[in-house]
Design a protein that fits this description.
47 residues; flat; mainly beta; two-stranded antiparallel sheet
């Protein structure tokens, strides 16, 4: 997160979730839904 002076602060909102693989594979991935992040750190291509 960035405050009003663009100073970074660490936070964790728990937005990642486990995605179970199709077919019973034991491989696990993480995923987020939608665009998330702080504008000051997000790449321009996200918008």
């Amino acid at each position: 997160l960035l405050d009003d002076d663009m100073v970074a602060h660490v936070s964790d909102f728990g937005i990642a979730r486990l995605v179970l693989a199709i077919g019973g594979n034991s491989q696990k991935d993480t995923s987020t839904i939608g665009i998330k992040g702080t504008v000051g750190y997000a790449p321009p291509g996200m918008f």
